[in-house]
Design brief:
The complex is a heterodimer of chains A (about 300) and B (about 220). With about 300 residues, chain A is an alpha+beta fold. Chain A is about 70% helix and about 10% strand. The radius of gyration of chain A is 31 Å and the shape is rod-shaped. In chain B, the strands form two sheets. A six-stranded mixed beta sheet of chain B has the order 6-7-8-3-9-10, with helices on both faces. A four-stranded antiparallel beta sheet of chain B has the order 2-1-4-5, with helices on one face. Chain B is globular and about 45 Å long. Classes of the chains: A alpha+beta (about 300), B alpha/beta (about 220). At the A-B interface, helix 1 and helix 7 of A face helix 2 and helix 3 of B.
Amino acid sequence: MRPRLWLYFLRQALVNIMNNRVFHAIGMGTMVVCLLIFGTFLVLFVNLNAWLQGWGHTLSMSVYLEDGIGEPGRKRVEAFLRKLPGAEIRRYISKEGAMRDLRHTLGPQAALLEGLSVNPLPASFELIFRNSPGKEKVDSGKLKERIKTIPGVSDVEYSEEWVKRFQGILGVVRLAGFFIGGLLALGILFIVTNTIKLTIYSRRDEIEILKLVGATDGFVKAPFLLEGMIQGVLSGTTALLLLFFGYFLLCGKKIHLMGLALPGFVFIPQEYVFSILIMSVALGLAGSFIAVGRFFDL
Amino acid sequence: MIQLFHVFKEYGSNVALSDISLKVREGEFVFITGPSGAGKTTLLRLIFGAERPASGHILINGIHLNRINRRNLDRLRRKIGFVFQDFKLLPGKTVFENVALALEVTGERRSRVRKKTRRALKLVGLREKETAYPLQISGGEQQRVAIARAIVRDPLILLADEPTGNLDPDLTRDIMLLFRSIYMKGTTVVIATHSRDLLEKTAARTILLDRGKVAGET
């Protein structure tokens, strides 16, 4: 198609938007809210994922000892643990030390422990394994089984179990994201379709005359398709700017999750930014396509 | 130029046209006349391709309208000018823009659109009113804008449905002179009218319709 025709279509699309600015403002406002919800979800998801990945790089482990293991047994276990590749013993917690820690954690409720005749808490070693980028990742499951075979070790817990549980939850969150995203996309499609339908209705006399003077279907439809695309571009851009503004306000703040200070917030990666923009344009185009398809049968 | 063979058209149980066969040669000036409800407007709409016949065949400039696709119909319409009874002007566009619309749909250059539009407006005597809006001009002037839009593309055929129906005798004479001048340039002109006065004052072939049938020809 000739470039001057595209200029004509663009001019027509902009005139349509200006003439129906209230419809378009409402439509775009709703679209922005939908995209903003989706974008916020993406930011939270990306950050949660990043935090979990960070935790995954450092594997921490608690090795619990049997009661009455004695000093020689403890030393034997310690020597074994020190030999493990990448392992670093952070501290040894004796039975008394574990009770002290528990009292400290319970605070005013520590009186509950007064009734205990014996200390039920085991002594333990706290270990960390650092995953170096070049080296093979520690297989925590195998390591746990190996440590459990050492005489005097009663149980082993490691942080990755928690990470795996979180990753499981994150999988559910991802699915929910797809579901919410799908619903929001349908909502956007519905909004754009109806906004364009309203502008078509408001111009139906002109469309009739255009057809009567020999305009092709493409000629009549093109400005409406452009209108949907423009609505998509404007809504997508506005939503991303608002999302970035919200991120900008939050990124300086310290965020705590279950008592842990989380590392700084990150914004969604560039490819996600482009995806949101492309998605909003595609939805705008698809919405106007549906609207013109249903309306035109002149 | 225009050929109809045993054309029938019905709207539900109402028969609008029944077994119409006629020919209009290239460069001819023809009146279609008859009482209200005789089928004049339906006949023009069929020739224009705005409706399809229930049966029968219509050929325009050798093109079979029954077999034409949407795209080619749009292109054929560019060769036919139509002056509607209710003018069909856009109130939000100026006189100039209303006329230019017929050229813009063909993708003409803006400079050519300007040139041709001004030429058509000059021909109908509305060059001075090109910036006015339809509601700011009289009924006769609106009719002339509609004619300017119909002739701006130099059509092969000009169809007009009751073009003087709402005009006083002086304006009617002016409009008919305009149609005559367009005809003199070689355009085939078909005018539907029920005005006896108009038929008596204009010497031209006249086809009489009555209850959807050709009832006579002079």
